[in-house]
Design a protein that fits this description.
This protein has 612 residues and is α+β, with helices and mostly antiparallel strands. The chain has 13 helices and 28 strands. It starts with 7 loop residues before the first strand and ends in a 9-residue tail after the last strand. The chain folds into 3 domains: 8-295 and 417-433, no CATH class; 301-409, Alpha-Beta Plaits (2-Layer Sandwich), CATH 3.30.70; 450-611, no CATH class.
């Protein structure tokens, strides 16, 4: 047992990404009671950054901000009896542990430190059929963390694990759950998914943010995990932000795929989750159903994809299209070498009779990519700048010419659960092997739905057996029962009912994000009466119309009636991942807000009274 209460474990979060608020660890330790404090520092782009760091300096490759936080807060954590668990090891967990031990000794402290290894498959990648990436890191589960805590570790550091495992591991250790307790593991996974992005659960990136009184410095979230796997999401009293069913739901819909949320410990059925208010700044999560995990684990493969350069020209006032055309022709004529990929984006941000020059300006962005750095070097940017005095009127760029830089790509790979040598190195140097789960279940798509878009009882999710792991961010085609359920109309409501043309966000919230080259948008409504309308509205055809960039891309639509939500996955929207910079918003962070701004027909009966 980790905490004092055998029935409840209080787990806090102090980091949602590498670069999050550096004072958060101290705030969480000082703000109230905790048993465990976790930090999530890794993302796909972060693994690439840390990999490149270690190439330059073999002693680095871990999250330096975590090291700084622990240097300031280790004594406080030990005094409070709070265990620290973080995935800050990145690509050099052993190096991070050595650095922590060095300064702990200087401070006269002797914490029991354990670390989890086995995620790094880089040296074996070619033999495993994963190619020759810069880095290959398997997503490990929470069992290693559980073993470390059960043996008395004060601080547990890992490399690449699933984000939710930061909560699953401590819960396994505290309650003594077995690997077969899939419903409990699934409940902890949901709690971990809510906590993993820090203040996104307490009002950050929240579509209805104007309703939150104080959002200047929102508090970080806490999960009170119960023995049965249920949990209550809350925050320290007096901290800013808010915890409501909507803030929790918004985070639940972040970076998911279909209704099966796969991980190395358990497959969680998102269509089973129940959210209920439990007091001020308290939301209860219950009813979560789990299934055995897939037979394979996901592997994060990062590589240098080539070199890129970018230049943005400003076009002001009249004749914007003609100015852009001239700039294109002159640039192509001046290019010494044409890159393998050359893209143009004209953003018409200008408006007629603008009161300021900036409001009269459009932006023409030119991006070149090539395996050869020379093809996107100084000559690339100079090709535009050298014609400055002989080009369109008002020519100028947003930045001076620059050299090309390498860009990374992320791709997922998969290996059997037993391939990674999942091990815990305890404080005394003893190495404990963590066996893979004994029971697995091939993952099948589960997009859910109902018999009619107008409502009714949820139809069974897709149960067709399918081999392997279908990445939760990749998704499958829409399942039967919902395919074109609305007949191409905005809703399945009586077509005679009066509607108004209003932004989708008048009724719906949304949260969007990235997972490799795919983007997801989770959309939900607060009023249960509006859910049949939303579910009928968001068909594949309508999504393509509302998001023209999605034309020709595979689209997965998953309906989650229990959450009054629809999740949309646009596969390939982000090219080869965030570092590829395929679009203006490379991580799709604002994609949901764009969708909310699109105008649709909304039945007047669903509108707030003041808008009817």
């Amino acid at each position: 047992m980790i905490g004092a209460n055998p029935e409840v474990l209080r787990i806090g979060n102090c980091s949602g990404f590498y670069g999050d608020r550096v004072t958060a660890m101290a705030e969480m330790l000082d703000g109230g009671d905790l048993d465990v404090l976790t930090g999530d520092y890794l993302a796909e782009l972060t693994m690439l950054i840390l990999g490149r760091d270690r190439m330059k300096d073999p002693a680095t490759g871990y999250a330096k901000t975590f090291l700084a936080q622990v240097r300031d807060c280790l004594r406080l954590a030990l005094d409070r009896g709070v265990r620290l668990v973080a995935n800050a090891g990145g690509v050099n967990t052993a190096g991070l542990v050595a650095a922590i031990r060095a300064f702990a000794s200087e401070q006269g402290l002797a914490p029991r430190i354990a670390w989890v290894r086995g995620d790094d498959l880089t040296a074996r990648a070619a033999d495993l059929g994963l190619g020759r990436p810069l880095g290959a890191h398997a997503y490990l589960g929470g069992a290693g963390i559980a073993a470390a805590l059960a043996a008395g570790a004060d601080l547990v550091v890992t490399g690449r694990i699933t984000d939710a495992s930061l909560v699953v591991g401590p819960a396994m250790a505290h309650f003594g759950w077995e690997r077969t307790d899939v419903d409990r593991l699934a409940g902890a996974t949901v709690a971990g998914h809510v906590l993993e992005c820090g203040t996104q659960a307490t009002g950050g990136n929240f579509p209805f943010f104007t309703e939150i009184a104080d959002l200047v410095r929102p508090g970080f979230p806490i999960a009170e995990v119960h023995r049965d796997g249920s949990s209550v999401i809350t925050k320290h009293p007096g901290s800013a932000g808010a915890v409501t069913t909507d803030t929790v739901l918004s985070q639940l819909l972040y970076e998911i795929g279909d209704a099966r949320y796969a991980g190395p410990d358990v497959t969680t059925r998102l269509d089973s989750i129940r959210l209920d208010p439990d007091g001020v700044d308290r939301v209860r999560i219950s009813g979560v159903v789990g299934e055995p995990p897939p037979p394979d684990v996901k592997v994060s493969l990062t590589a240098i994809g080539g070199f890129r350069n970018e230049l943005t020209l400003v076009l002001t006032g009249l004749d914007i299209e003609a100015k852009a055309d001239l700039a294109r022709r002159q640039f192509l004529d001046a290019l010494p070498t044409r890159p393998a990929q050359l893209t143009w984006r004209l953003a018409r941000l200008d408006r007629a009779d603008a009161p300021t020059q900036q409001e009269a300006a459009a932006l023409l962005t030119i991006v070149g990519r090539d395996p050869d750095e020379r093809a996107v070097g100084r000559g690339f940017a100079n090709a535009a700048v050298e014609v400055a005095l002989g080009s369109y009127p008002g020519f100028f760029a947003t930045s001076p010419p620059a050299a090309g830089s390498p860009y990374g790509v992320f791709t997922p790979g998969f290996v059997p659960q037993g391939v990674p040598a999942h091990e815990v190195v305890h404080d005394d140097g003893r190495v404990e092997a963590i066996a893979p789960p004994t029971r697995t279940q091939p993952l099948a798509p589960a997009t859910g739905g109902t018999d009619k878009a107008a409502g009714g009882h949820p139809a069974p999710a897709g149960e067709d057996p399918g081999p392997g792991w279908h990445d939760a961010s990749a998704g499958e085609k829409c399942g039967p029962g919902w395919e074109d359920a609305s007949g191409g109309e905005d809703s399945a409501y009586d077509l005679a009912e009066r509607t108004r043309r209003l932004p989708l966000g008048t009724l719906a919230g949304a949260r969007s994000g990235d997972k490799g080259g795919a983007a997801n948008i989770g959309v939900w409504v607060r009023d249960a009466r509006a859910y049949p309308w939303l579910a009928g509205l968001l068909t594949e055809d309508r999504v393509r119309a509302l998001i023209p960039e999605a034309a020709g891309l595979p689209i997965t639509i998953t309906r989650l009636p229990n959450l009054r939500a629809v999740n949309i996955v646009l596969d390939g929207l982000l090219g080869e991942g965030v570092a590829f910079n395929a679009r203006f918003d490379p991580q799709a962070k604002g994609l949901g807000e764009w969708l909310r701004s699109r105008v649709v027909d909304i039945p007047e009966s669903l509108l707030p009274q003041e808008q009817q």
